[in-house]
Amino acid sequence: MIAVEDVVVGLWRALSRRDWDAVKTFLATDCLYVDMPVPALAARGPEDTVKRLRMGLEPLAGYENHDGLLVSSGSDVIYEHSETWTFATGEQGVLRFVTVHKVVDGKVTVWKDYWDMNSLVSFAPPNHFENLANADTSWIFDASALV
């Protein structure tokens, strides 16, 4: 059986490459993805989780995940890491994350990202948020009562 740490590292390597098909292979069919600053805008399942991730990351000119501390206890994994976001218009910044995953039978069943929205607001171009407001939102799952 694959170690929970290897599942999480593999997921984040696939995400850093923006290899959307590979990302899906790490997610359980009922995986819950929650951006903790906005739990009402969560996603459920591999397809909708990837739709949610693509909305924010695909338009970027550059995206890179930087490994950090990874701690596991049974099926729970806490991963402290950062991401460099580079926009097509040249703006660039680093977002710092603590991500909590639950891994069952080699698949991520829960993915909760904790980060500071203000740090993104401080460097993202204004049209980034306008584009998000006009994006496909068919993926939305309100996880407020579950987290």
Automatic annotation (TrEMBL):
Domain Limonene-1,2-epoxide hydrolase as annotated: residue spans: 7-122
Keyword Hydrolase tagged: yes
Keyword tags: Hydrolase
UniProt keyword Hydrolase present: yes
InterPro entries registered for this protein in UniProt: LEH, NTF2-like_dom_sf
Molecular-function annotations in GO: hydrolase activity
Name of the protein in question: Limonene-1,2-epoxide hydrolase
Organism: Mycobacterium rhizamassiliense
Phylogenetic placement of the source organism: Bacteria, Bacillati, Actinomycetota, Actinomycetes, Mycobacteriales
